[in-house]
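hey can u check if this looks right to u? its 87 residues, i copy pasted from the old doc so theres a chance i mangled smth
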Amino acid sequence: MASMTDVIFLLLIFFMITSTVVSPNAIKVLLPQGKQQTSAKPLTRVVIDKDLNFYAAFGNEKEKPLSLDELTPFLQGYPTVRLYVSP
């Protein structure tokens, strides 16, 4: 009579062999290739501090102080804005 260890070992070998034989039924799809590389757009940052001072910058530039009247024309040129409110 075979021991339990021998039976488990044989079952393990059986499932390892049968799993490599079975191939998945997947549909092969040819995806179109892009013609140009897309890049990340730089963000416009607006910082408002606790004294309600406004600072704005585009991309990696340092924030420069702006008044509320200057902020609107500054933001109209840049479509993507990230807003920071400092405590």
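The mean pLDDT is 80.
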